[in-house]
Write a structure and sequence with these properties.
alpha+beta; 10 helices; 20 strands
Length: 449
């Protein structure tokens, strides 16, 4: 018999911690390998943590709503077979029976640890405290690490307003604080607390002056809803949003898709929607105008090498998520269709992984799904542009021919391009969306797939 430590797995380069939302198994339950044991939530995505072994759940080390660092042990699973002892996740049961032999050594270690801790506390009293355990407020290990790196004292950290559960300070809260903190001239210590707290209002405020009646229903915002709210307000406050609109004739695309969609589904087992065609055109246009594929960091512009297209997708609960098609410019139309369908399906089933929604450099959102002919989308930070696809409609149009002009029925749509006017001027923003339109209107109706 052996015990296996189930640890919080790595969930992407920028994800250092997660919140346990619920346990799917209870102590005593039998678990199979790859069977989900618990659900977790990060500031990126919700996901499940599966078991790596067959066995029985014998211990749960964290409760729901606890914040856990990547790599921490969250549960113990007892297995019937041998567990690879080279793996530091395994514990032999016999080790539990030999604790008495090492008790003396343990006491000595604890004594030395206590002496070291006392020395550290003495040093901290003279240099300024960076131990946040004295606070009655909860801070995650990630928030503490960021605060220590930025030399933020406990007193200063206490002034940061949190937007997480029960007012917890999230990673976004502390990073926003650090950014705003560095952008203001330093004042005296006495004035620092006041000046920093003045501009650290949460992304959404409790409107205490809202009058309600007995018949009104008060609905608590979901965790994801709160995050979306914060991201949207942060984006509007960060970027100078400007929009350009252009009408596009997509008749050739409409007819071509109708001609090939059934054969495509039989051959590839995938639906052929309009989205991969539009994504292909956007990727080509970004290659032509690479300064759309940038981010802003302080007073520096970061030009991205890879073209990773975010694809806004509506979830069944009404929320929104943006999975990312990595290196979209390297995919042919078949590959793009498969990537679009895969991400859309997994988004609807809540099976996206944290890596699936990271690294986007430009975003496309399809407002036409709901019948809207145009929109003014909010930029997905830290990107500098987002394109909204309007509904495709039959429209009367003037058709120019060598024999003269005439009126005909065409399939048309409107592209709405929102961009950050801090770094993207009107000429670049307009030329980019115009190039997307040119690729769509110039689509080869005789194209093979």
């Amino acid at each position: 018999m052996a015990k296996f430590e189930l640890k919080l797995p790595k969930m992407g380069e920028s994800v250092a911690e997660a919140t346990i939302t619920s346990w799917l198994k209870e102590v005593g339950d039998t678990i199979e390998a790859d069977e989900p044991v618990l659900e977790i939530a990060t500031d990126k995505v919700d996901s499940e943590v599966p078991s790596e072994v067959d066995g029985k759940l014998v211990e749960i080390l964290f409760e729901a709503d606890d914040v856990v660092e990547v790599g921490q042990t969250i549960a113990i699973i007892e297995t019937d077979g041998e567990v690879n002892q080279d793996d530091d996740l395994a514990i032999d049961l016999e080790e539990d029976e030999s604790d008495e032999d090492s008790q003396a050594d343990s006491d000595e270690v604890e004594q030395h640890a206590a002496e070291a801790e006392a020395a550290v506390e003495t040093a901290m009293e003279t240099t300024g405290s960076s131990d946040y355990s004295d606070s009655d407020r909860f801070y995650s290990p990630l928030v503490k690490n960021i605060a220590k790196e930025e030399n933020i004292s406990l007193e200063e950290l206490e002034t940061v307003k949190g937007t997480g559960k029960d007012g917890r300070v999230t990673k976004d809260d502390i990073l926003a604080y650090v950014e705003n903190r560095g952008s203001k001239p330093k004042a005296s210590t006495a004035n620092n607390t006041t000046s920093k707290s003045d501009h650290l209002e949460p992304a959404f405020k409790n409107q205490e002056n809202v009058v309600t009646s007995g018949e009104d229903e008060i609905i608590e915002m979901s965790r994801m809803g709160k995050m979306i709210s914060k991201h949207m307000i942060d984006s509007v406050q960060t970027s100078a949003h400007v929009q350009s609109f252009i009408e596009v004739d997509v008749t050739n695309i409409w007819n071509w898709r109708n001609k090939h969609k059934e054969a495509f589904q039989k051959r590839e087992g995938e639906k052929l929607t309009f989205t991969p065609i539009f994504m292909e055109a956007v990727a080509k246009a970004i290659r032509d105008f690479p300064l759309i594929n940038i981010s802003v960091s302080g007073d520096k512009v970061i030009k991205k090498k890879d073209i990773n297209l975010g694809m806004a997708a509506a979830l069944p609960d009404g929320n929104l998520i943006v999975p990312v098609i990595k290196n979209a410019d390297r995919l042919n139309l078949v590959g793009m269709a498969k990537a679009v369908n895969d991400l859309a399906n997994r988004a609807r089933q809540n099976k996206l992984k944290p890596d699936d929604i990271q690294g986007g450099t430009y975003t496309v959102t399809n407002v036409g799904t709901f019948g809207s002919i145009m929109g003014t989308p909010i930029i997905n930070q830290p990107q500098v542009g987002i394109l909204a696809l309007g509904a495709i409609r039959k429209m009367p149009a003037v058709i120019e021919t060598p024999e003269g002009d005439f009126i005909g029925i065409r399939y048309k749509m409107i592209l709405s391009h929102s961009y950050d006017h801090r770094v993207v001027n009107g000429a670049l923003g307009g030329q980019f969306v115009q190039r997307v339109a040119q690729y769509l209107e110039g689509f080869d109706k005789n194209r093979e797939i």
